Amino acid sequence: MNSQVILNNDSHNKINYKYIGNVANALYILSQNALSQKMKAIEMTNDLEIGDIPDSEIDVHQQRIKSILKEQQFFHAERQVIIRHLINSKQAKLLGYVEVKNINYGLVKIDCHKFYCIITKKLIHKFKLKKLSDKFEKFDVKSDDELKTIMTLSEAKRVFNLFHNLILQKNQQKLTGSQAKVKQSIATIVLSNTVSEKGSIIVVKKKPKKI
To answer: What pTM was estimated for this model as a whole?
Structure first.
């Protein structure tokens, strides 16, 4: 079962990127696409290793593989940011974790979809997560036509990018707010200088409050 797609209340009929169901669908579509691209890169690498690629096309073939892998690295990094945000904001639920090749992957449920993402031991202890297995649970893999009935790839990318940017903006605002508090605290110390009745400068030292 997939989340109902919620549209913006405007004439453009755009999918609402702030609705958690749409975000979950976008993550699902793009995760499926990433898996497909990974398999394609593996297949292309195998073709290269067994000599099925003409010498004149080897450089282009290698560049294509590198391009796919680089794109996947960016996607998984940004995907991690989104899932971590949803966990911290309690819009996603951690069901447990699996340990594969000494790396802990949390099993995360976002709306009606499940995902794996790398988590720290701190998160495992914080949420008191139980170890589920030493291998990944097999999820259903849908065809391209089935995926299109949930959300198109272009719409999934749009929702994903807009939501990722929204998170970065919020994080930047928090950082800016923290920096402003630090500056204000430092300014308070500087302005704490005063002059005694005899004209001597008295420096009043005040320990900044912890933020």
So the answer is: 0.76
CA atoms within 13 A on the CB side of 25: 27
Going by C-alpha positions, the residue among 31, 82, 88, 104 that lies closest to residue 96 is 104
Q: Which residues of the chain have pLDDT under 50?
A: 11, 189-195, 211
How many Å apart are CA 65 and CA 71, to the nearest integer?
10
All structural domains of the chain with their residue ranges: 20-172
**pLDDT value of residue 112:** 92
